[in-house]
Design brief:
By secondary structure, the protein is α/β, with parallel strands linked by helices. Helices cover about 35% and strands about 20% of the residues. Bound molecules: 2-acetamido-2-deoxy-beta-D-glucopyranose (4 copies). One 2-acetamido-2-deoxy-beta-D-glucopyranose binds near residues 45 and 47.
Length: about 290
C-alpha cells in the first residue's frame, strides 16, 4: 500500500515536472526572457480619429506580485479613454527565480503587458531611471506621454486623459506635487504615486548626464531634481485635489474620495479597493446573471 502510494506520488511529481519543462521549453524560443533583459513592446496601431494623443502607463512593481498584477489587469480592463490611446504595462527588474521564468512567460504570452528592465529590484536604486532611459530603446513607436505609477494606486483613465488634453505635449511634468499642502509645481517634485512626463523629457532622461550621474535616492525626488538641474519641464501641472492618498492614510496628502478623481494612492487593503471601486461605480453597469 505504502509502496503504491510512493509510486503514485513519484509519477505525479514527474508528470508535473515534465509539464513545466514542456511549457518552459515551448515558450523559450518565442520569448527569451533572460538574456536579453528587455522585453520589446510592439505598439498596436488601433488609434481612432478621436484619439488625440497617446500615453504609456508603466506600473512599477515586482515580479512576485502576481496577484496584484492580476487584479490591476481587471481594474484597468474595465476602463478606456475616448480621447487618448492609453497602454498600461507592468515594469520590473530582471527575474531572479527559476519559477518566475515560467510563470511570467505565461503572463507575457497571454497579456503582452510586461517590461523587464536590466536592473535588480531595490528601493531607490535607479529603477525609475532605468525605466525612462530604456523606453526610447525598446518601444517600436513613441508615445506623447509616459507615466510612472505605483502598484497601489487606482488611476481613472478618462479623467486622466481629459486633464492632459489641454496641456502641453512638450516639456511637461505632471502629477501631485510634494509636500502635501503645496500648490506650486515648480518647487520640489511630483509624488511617485503617479507622474507624467512628455516624450521629449523621457528622451532627455535617456541622453543627459544629469540623470545618469544621479540615479540613487528616493526615485520621485530624483526626477524632480534632474529636471530642475537640467532647467527642464517649463510646463508643470499639479493635479490637486483630484490626485490624493486614500482617506486617513497619509496626513495632508489624504482626503475623502471626490467625484472628479484622477488617482487615489495607498490602496493596500482589499476593503480600501472595494470602497474605491464602489464609490466610482466601476462595476455598476455590469449585470450579474444567475446561471440556471
Ligand atoms: C545589463 O546590465 C549589466 C550591468 O550594467 C551589463 O553588464 C549587461 O550587459 C546588461 N545586459 C543587457 C542585455 O543589456
Ligand atoms: C497609425 O495610425 C495613425 C493614425 O491613424 C496613422 O497616421 C499612422 O500612419 C499609423 N501607423 C502605422 C504604422 O500604421
Ligand atoms: C557625470 O559624471 C562624469 C564622470 O564622473 C563627469 O565626467 C561628468 O562631467 C558628469 N556630468 C554631469 C552633468 O554632472
Ligand atoms: C455613482 O452612481 C450613483 C448612482 O447613480 C451616482 O449618484 C454617483 O454620483 C456616481 N458616482 C460617481 C463618482 O460617479
Amino acid at each position: 500500500m505504502l509502496r503504491l502510494r510512493i509510486i503514485v506520488a513519484t509519477l505525479s511529481a514527474l508528470a508535473i515536472l515534465l509539464f513545466l519543462f514542456f511549457i518552459l521549453f515551448s515558450i523559450h524560443f518565442k520569448s527569451p526572457l533572460l538574456p536579453p533583459a528587455y522585453t520589446t513592446i510592439t505598439f498596436q496601431n488601433k488609434s481612432s480619429p478621436h484619439q488625440q494623443f497617446s500615453l504609456l502607463i508603466g506600473v512599477l512593481t515586482r515580479p512576485d506580485k502576481y496577484d496584484r498584477r492580476h487584479f490591476l489587469r481587471l481594474v484597468y480592463g474595465t476602463q478606456s479613454s475616448s480621447i487618448a490611446k492609453i497602454d498600461v504595462k507592468f515594469v520590473f527588474c530582471s527575474l531572479t527565480k527559476p519559477e518566475q521564468r515560467v510563470f511570467i512567460a505565461l503572463e507575457i504570452v497571454r497579456f503582452n503587458d510586461i517590461i523587464i528592465l536590466n536592473c535588480s529590484e531595490n528601493m531607490n536604486s535607479g529603477k525609475t531611471y532605468k525605466y525612462f532611459s530604456t523606453l526610447p530603446q525598446i518601444l517600436s513607436r513613441q508615445y506623447n506621454y509616459v507615466m510612472k505609477a505605483d502598484d497601489d494606486v487606482f488611476i481613472r483613465l478618462e479623467p486622466l486623459a481629459l486633464s492632459l488634453q489641454p496641456l502641453s505635449r512638450f516639456d511637461l511634468y505632471y502629477g501631485f506635487v510634494i509636500p502635501c499642502p503645496s500648490m506650486n509645481p515648480f518647487v520640489h517634485y511630483m509624488s511617485g504615486m503617479g507622474f507624467v512626463l512628455s516624450w521629449d523629457l523621457v528622451e532627455w532622461i535617456g541622453n543627459s548626464e544629469i540623470p545618469m550621474n544621479h540615479t540613487f535616492g528616493p526615485e520621485d525626488k530624483m526626477v524632480g531634481q534632474w529636471l530642475n538641474d537640467g532647467n527642464k519641464a517649463k510646463n508643470r501641472f499639479s493635479n490637486k485635489p483630484v490626485m490624493y492618498d486614500y482617506p486617513g492614510t497619509n496626513g495632508r496628502c489624504s482626503h475623502q474620495l471626490i467625484p472628479d478623481t484622477v488617482a487615489v494612492h495607498r490602496l493596500k487593503r482589499w476593503e480600501q479597493w472595494l470602497h474605491v471601486l464602489n464609490y466610482f461605480n466601476v462595476t455598476k453597469d455590469i449585470e450579474l446573471y444567475n446561471i440556471v
